[in-house]
User: Which sequence fits this backbone?
């Protein structure tokens, strides 16, 4: 079936604007993850859902970042009052529930805050 | 914060040669995974090795894991131009929370 999709692929926001990034996981995947990847770095964990429950949000850098997955499928990462340091690629991944499963990554959303 | 560090940070080899990348990590793990990322694209899973395994093969890939040294290596044999990419190791630390902690990556360039 289709892989993980993310939209938009590119987003330019003026500093102070709010943005919403969407992730459509692979159908049937229980686990969903958001990661942030700065230029030249490895991805860093932001938050994790199992179905609609947000089990870990320890990686969210500030209270301006908020994620939801209300029906246990599509997820939205929202960033309020964007700042320049929020510029990065935001990656979404999904996997089957449980440990020792690979994660399937989407193409990412490249956010540039000007 | 990044759990692991890969070395080298960058590697250039001739097509057909073997490429070896190393990864070190800091805490105990449940499994270690290697991912490939082509320029400007998402990550693709290559191989997963569990903490009770020492070596695993998949096609031209060979991964080793030494939990006593908290290190892993990825060997790509008979490299091809299409192997040019960044390679990341990632660790899953806990049962019940499958979040991955990524290393800093190795940029591999295969020279045709």
Assistant:
């Amino acid at each position: 079936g289709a892989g993980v999709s993310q939209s938009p692929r590119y987003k330019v926001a003026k500093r102070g604007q709010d943005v919403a990034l969407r992730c459509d996981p692979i159908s049937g995947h229980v686990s969903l993850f958001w990661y942030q990847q700065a230029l030249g770095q490895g991805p860093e964990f932001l938050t994790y859902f199992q179905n609609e429950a947000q089990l870990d949000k320890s990686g969210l850098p500030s209270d301006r970042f908020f994620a939801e997955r209300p029906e246990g499928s599509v997820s939205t990462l929202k960033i309020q009052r964007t700042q320049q340091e929020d510029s990065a690629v935001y990656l979404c991944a999904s996997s089957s529930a449980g440990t020792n499963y690979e994660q399937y990554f989407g193409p990412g959303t490249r956010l540039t805050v000007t | 914060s990044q759990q692991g560090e890969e070395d080298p940070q960058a590697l250039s080899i001739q097509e057909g040669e073997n490429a070896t990348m190393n990864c070190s990590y800091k805490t105990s793990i449940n499994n270690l995974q290697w991912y490939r990322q082509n320029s400007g694209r998402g990550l693709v899973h290559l191989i997963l090795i569990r903490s009770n395994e020492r070596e695993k093969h998949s096609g031209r890939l060979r991964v080793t894991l030494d939990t006593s040294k908290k290190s892993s290596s990825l060997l790509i044999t008979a490299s091809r131009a299409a192997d040019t990419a960044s390679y990341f190791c990632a660790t899953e630390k806990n049962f019940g929370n499958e979040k991955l902690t990524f290393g800093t990556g190795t940029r591999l360039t295969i020279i045709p």
